[in-house]
Amino acid sequence: MFHRTVSRSLAVAASSVVGISAATYYGRNNKEGSGGGLPQEPWSNVDKPLPTRAEMFREIERRIGLHSTRNKKNGGAAENNDYDKDDKDDDKFDLLVIGGGATGSGVALDAQTRGLKTILVERDDFASGTSSKSTKLVHGGVRYLEKAVFNLDYGQLKLVFEALKERKVLLQNAPHLSHVLMIATPCYEWYEVPYYWAGMKAYDLVAGTSALTFSSFATSSRTIMEFPTVAKRKVLIDDEEEARKIRERDDVDEILSTEEPTMGKSLKGSVLYSDGQFDDARLNVALAVTAAHAGAVVLNHCSVVDLLKDDDVNREKVTGAILKDEETGKTHAVRAKVIVNCAGPFADDVRALDDPSKATKEKKMVSPSLGTHVVLPKYYVPEKFGMIIPKTKDGRVVFLLPWLDHAVAGTTDIALKPGEKTPKEPLATQDEVDYILETIAPYLALQPHRQEVLSVWSGARPLAKDPTKTNSSDLSRDHVIAKETPSDVIVVAGGKWTTYRLMAEETVDFVLKTMRESGENVNAIASCRTSNMGVIGAHGHKDSLSASVAQSGGDGFGGSNPDPDVSRHLATSYGDRAMAVASLASFAGLEKRLHPNVPVIEAEVVYAARAEFCRSASDFLARRSRMAFLDVQASEMATNRVVELLAKELKWGWRRRRAETKKTKEFLKSFRAS
Questions:
Q1: pTM listed for this prediction
Q2: Is 439 exposed, middle or buried (0-12, 13-18, 19+ CB in 10 A)?
Q3: What SS3 state is found at 324?
Q4: Is 582 exposed, middle or buried (0-12, 13-18, 19+ CB in 10 A)?
């Protein structure tokens, strides 16, 4: 009786609170995009080459030379000119973006396409941190909606509204890297059916015109037909001995047993809803590459080692940064009118360059937590259906999703201890792996075990607090954009992948406001265009692309010796650039897979070095391909060949090759549980 009451209450609350707020919010904010396909951009031309790293540094040196010349002419004082769009000899960039994750790359693309002269620097590689270690969902956040309803929290509801609108934009702007995924919520109690059904209908209502498909109820027979590995009966693992058996099981007959269970709650059906799914790291790389094609200076493996303060009026204002090329060790003094800190979980490290006290517990802006995911063989989930376990024994949400012909399960949420430094390469623990396996086990007919885990990764999720607010304990799941005083550095922190574009738009709007306040004339700067702007690879993408790729693949993976997995992988990873990769493979004889278990071919290594800023074997294995995330053992076996191909393309000597091999194998250890 209690559960029926809760279900009815939830349905009523969802309808009233969400319905009223939806009408209010959409009346103000839900403006339709232009539709009708993506407009053509300079990077729509597949033959346009990517500016090289050397060209990027030459542009930096050119501006440094201009600054020195102007200093001499002005007797040592830097000239403070108003913004002039036609002044191509300005010694300053308009904007310096520190951090090449989703937010930083999105800011760089937005700013450059509006007309701001932008430089983006990343100390490691694009998406090397949080942005490559998500759950791979483009979603509004079902659990945020639940909190909004139960707590009557408009702030949480606003998060869901914005995310659902941005979900549609992301799917539109990167169609080759994203798609719609159906997700099932299995119900083993009758009260769960109306409870989850009401919640998902509220999700539909909030989505409004941004909805992908409407949620629905599937009977137990249909659920089993669509999701053959779902458990017909749910048996909770309360016994520690049974949990131990799952962790240590190694009998194949026991693992694959088809014996019908006789204990536990029977499957009553499932509530189905849709969300988006994407390749996070490749989208991040695409954003950075697109920004470079748009004219931005874009550099990975280039760190900020110090901040410059040489403004004649405000001696505390940050006017630039000392950049260090991590490949050569050379430093460069770069000046910009505005500096934006988008370093994610490492934002406080950048803040400490301005004021070391900002690294203390009391003044920190970011409070990261670590989340772990595990990868299992693809037979655990059907190709087009995922599963959500909406409430675990400790109140978390766990997903089991198909992704790149594998199954991904997660995540955990482990807060760092006070004062603990955010690790650059977080390590998942065996306890976290066991927790995930034990959580999904009752919902599956096949019982997962440790030996099936192909890869594990852990990422730092930054919760942010606004440094300008007095209540320092108030952490937000929304993003925070704040200008620090007296440095005038803009810090962007928090948020989620789905809303990266909105965060970038709001950040660049804030940048322009800051420039106006400092006396710059920015009237010639255009408004934001990224709500209908395809990333590189999007414009020529079509459903038949994988067939065209197979035709261009020669005998290696097309023609008379087809390998449809490779053709499909190239089409969904590169979009309209897949034809260039296929042609390179055919003409250069680089059609062979790097490992039989993963459809990644040798030509991709060379293409990544030429057209995607790939500078190391780790860059390729983890973020140009996703081999490290999918199968760490396969990546370890492919390392020597990847190094060999990169060495030839980037002209490495034998010492660099040997060091690179050692460094890569050490890096791959982070994809195993400690």
A1: 0.89
A2: buried
A3: strand
A4: buried
